[in-house]
Each structure stands twice: as structure tokens, then as C-alpha cells.
UniProtKB/TrEMBL annotation:
Protein name: Peptide methionine sulfoxide reductase MsrA
Organism: Loigolactobacillus backii
Record function comment: Has an important function as a repair enzyme for proteins that have been inactivated by oxidation. Catalyzes the reversible oxidation-reduction of methionine sulfoxide in proteins to methionine.
Record flagged with keyword Nucleotide-binding: no
Top EC group: oxidoreductase
Catalytic residues (UniProt): C12
Length: 171
């Protein structure tokens, strides 16, 4: 069984785990930080907006069961691709929407998918989600892993902060 990884940023990583974690072929979803210039940042450093990192999830998957293209489609359905400075109630650069690609194949799939979404007419505002080369990914502290399982009530409150309404409106 082969294994690949994908990295997506779309607001608070707490809300980005479950949409991927519940799909067949997903082996692991890790909350963490990427895109910045500080090695092994802490949550407190990242939310201070001084490290350049973005909260993200690293998805380990079996490409024989679920493709990278399918993962990108899931990503579009759980983010607001028209909001460059955060997602829903999560504001600031550390919550910006980014697809971090690890190779040319992922880049091509992500760009084609973004172009298709942009040309679909689904959104009246431009698609601003960035596609960037993957940088080192640092797992977040244990308290942030599998948050939707550890604190389902708080997760539900966070999810209701706009993401769920957005998904229902657009998808």
C-alpha cells in the first residue's frame, strides 16, 4: 500500500481535520504550522503573527483509494476561496487559504482545479487561494491534534462560526 501527503491551510486547523479524516483512504491528518521562517514554532508564536507560519493540516493518504485531485475538491468545499486574510471567524495571515504543493504534479492538479472553480461562476468574487511550494511542516502541540474528537462541543461551536453556513450556501 503506497502513501502520499498533501498540505492544506484554510483557517483554524481544528476545523480542517474532520473533513479529510472521515474519508476512505485517509491514514492520518496532523494539525500543524508551515510556510514560516521559525523552526518548531509554538502555537503562541504562530498566533502572534510574527513567524510567518500558517495553520495547516498534513494529510497522509493512500492514492489507490483517494486521489490528490479528490482531496483538493474536498478542500474547496470547506474553505472560502475568496477570503485572502483568514477564514470565517479566524482572521489574519496565519489563517490564510493556501494549498501547499510538494511537486509539479500536485501543483498542476491544484492550479487546474482553482482555474475550474474560478471559471465556474460559483463565486462572484475572485478566487484568492494561493498555491505555494511546500515548506517544512511542524506538527502542532498534542492538545491541537484530533480536536474534533477531543472536544466535540467546542469544535461544533467553532464550526458554526461561519464555515458550516458557507458550505451550505455554496455547495
Amino acid at each position: 500500500m503506497s502513501e502520499e501527503t498533501a498540505i492544506f491551510a484554510g483557517g483554524c486547523f481544528w476545523c480542517m481535520v474532520k473533513p479529510f479524516d472521515t474519508q476512505p483512504g485517509i491514514k492520518k491528518v496532523v494539525s500543524g504550522y508551515t510556510g514560516g521562517d521559525v523552526a518548531n514554532p509554538t502555537y503562541e508564536q504562530v498566533i502572534s503573527h510574527t513567524t510567518g507560519h500558517t495553520e495547516a493540516v498534513k494529510v497522509t493518504f493512500d492514492p489507490a483509494v483517494i486521489s490528490y485531485k479528490q482531496l483538493v475538491q474536498i478542500y474547496w468545499q470547506v474553505t472560502d476561496p475568496t477570503d485572502a486574510m483568514g477564514q470565517f471567524q479566524d482572521r489574519g495571515a496565519s489563517y490564510r487559504p493556501v494549498i501547499f504543493v510538494k511537486n509539479e504534479q500536485q501543483k498542476k492538479i491544484a492550479e487546474e482545479s482553482r482555474n475550474k472553480l474560478e471559471n465556474s461562476g460559483k463565486f462572484t468574487q475572485p478566487i484568492v487561494t494561493k498555491i505555494e511550494s511546500a515548506k517544512p511542516f511542524y506538527p502542532a502541540e498534542e492538545a491541537h491534534q484530533d480536536f474534533y474528537k477531543k472536544d466535540p462541543l467546542r469544535y461544533r461551536i467553532e464550526e458554526m462560526g461561519g464555515r458550516e453556513k458557507f458550505i451550505k450556501k455554496h455547495w
